TrEMBL record:
SUPFAM superfamilies: NAD(P)-binding Rossmann-fold domains. It holds the Pfam family NAD_binding_10. Residues 8-188 form the NAD(P)-binding domain. This is NAD(P)H-binding protein.
Length: 214
């Protein structure tokens, strides 16, 4: 039985994952740190504050596994500085909170193309975030790199409406993936004993894991 911490529970992947965690018999306790209160999350400890870092500071119960589903776009963030805060700093803050509370395994949603040396800002920040987590003393670190995500967001993204149908036709890691598949793969990986160290799961592997759990 595992005690878990999740950030990003109000987002696309995190919302699916939270519902799966609530129903999972192997999960003993769930803490979801959020910026706004959760609705319909009975049994979930929900420290919340306008600044996520303040919500994380409220978490005091021991944790075994950390799930981080934070992520935005440069357009939604409004500036490069705000994007870095959301997709780099708050992910690192989530990780540090987990380590402080004794967690051994962290699973994080990154992105296909993440590379700290990328010429593209989005991919570079994702890559730098991954590097920061690799430098931390995790017994086990699982990095998920999904392609374009499918699913119903509270805030629609115009580029996804245009590109999603095209990405459905692409092969391998480029093919779009539904958010619930990413969440299912994330939970499955967390509950499956695995080797220590860093594991990177590209989009095609995420679909494969999710299909095996269907």
């Amino acid at each position: 039985m595992s005690q878990v911490l999740i950030t990003g529970a109000t987002g696309l992947v995190g919302g699916h994952l939270l519902r799966m965690l609530i129903e999972a018999p192997d999960i003993a306790a769930i803490t979801a740190a959020t910026r706004r209160p959760l609705a319909d999350a009975e049994g979930v400890l929900n420290p919340h504050a306008p600044e996520l870092s303040d919500a994380l500071a409220q978490v005091v119960d021991p944790v075994d596994i950390v799930f981080c589903c934070l992520g935005t776009t440069l357009r939604d963030a409004g500036s490069k500085a705000a994007f870095i805060q959301a997709d780099y700093q708050l992910v690192v803050d989530t990780a540090l909170t987990g380590l402080r509370l004794g967690a051994k395994h962290m699973l994080v949603v990154s992105a296909m193309g993440a590379n700290p040396h990328s010429m593209f800002f989005y991919n570079r920040v994702k890559g730098e975030m991954e590097e920061a987590l690799r430098a931390q003393p995790w017994t086990r670190l699982t990095i998920l790199r999904p392609s374009m995500l499918l699913g119903d967001r509270e805030q629609k993204r115009a580029n996804e409406a245009v590109l999603a149908p095209l990405f459905r036709l692409l092969p391998g890691n480029w093919k779009s993936i539904h958010a619930h598949e990413v969440a299912q793969a994330m939970l499955s990986e967390a509950l499956t004993p695995g080797r220590e160290g860093v594991t990177i799961l590209p989009s095609a592997k995420l679909r494969e894991i999710a299909a095996s759990e269907a």
